[in-house]
Amino acid sequence: MNNTEIIELIAALGIGGIIGAWITSILEKRKEVQLKLNQINEEKYRSILVHMSCALDIENRKYFSINEEYKGKTKEYYLNCVKEYYFQSLLYTPDYIIKDLKLFLEDPNKTTFVRVAKSMRKDLWGKKTKLKIDELLLSDDGVNQEG
Questions:
Q1: What is the structure's pLDDT at 147?
Q2: Domain that holds residue 107
Q3: Using CA atoms, how far apart are residues 39 and 18, in angstroms rounded to an integer?
Q4: How far apart are CA 78 and CA 72, in angstroms?
Q5: How many CB atoms lie within 10 A of CB 114?
Q6: What residues have CB less than 8 Å from 98, skipping those under 6 apart?
Q7: Is 59 within a domain?
């Protein structure tokens, strides 16, 4: 190998290394953004599930860390919170979650609740569950499963 070839090889490796580092940096930033977005969505979904649970059974609020200003609220209040989320979600939530939220708002019950939760899970983790809704429902605790 002559000097020119060696210099060309070193230059090619140097440029390749710079391009490789640049691509790695872009991919890492993209991964960080996706993780942050998932974290934001997870917090948002948890909050809406709490509101949905309280809309189904107002006594459920005693099981959640709910701000004092929410303690005296009614089931209708919590359902209205879900409705507000529904309208906001039209901007950024996947279609399948919007459809399931609409079903919950039209007929709030355990089955529609679990449908929404399954959709949120799919959005967060990109995986469908093999569990069927009836496998996820808890035994009847006084709340109607079908409305």
A1: 45
A2: 40-136
A3: 32
A4: 11
A5: 21
A6: 86, 89, 90
A7: yes
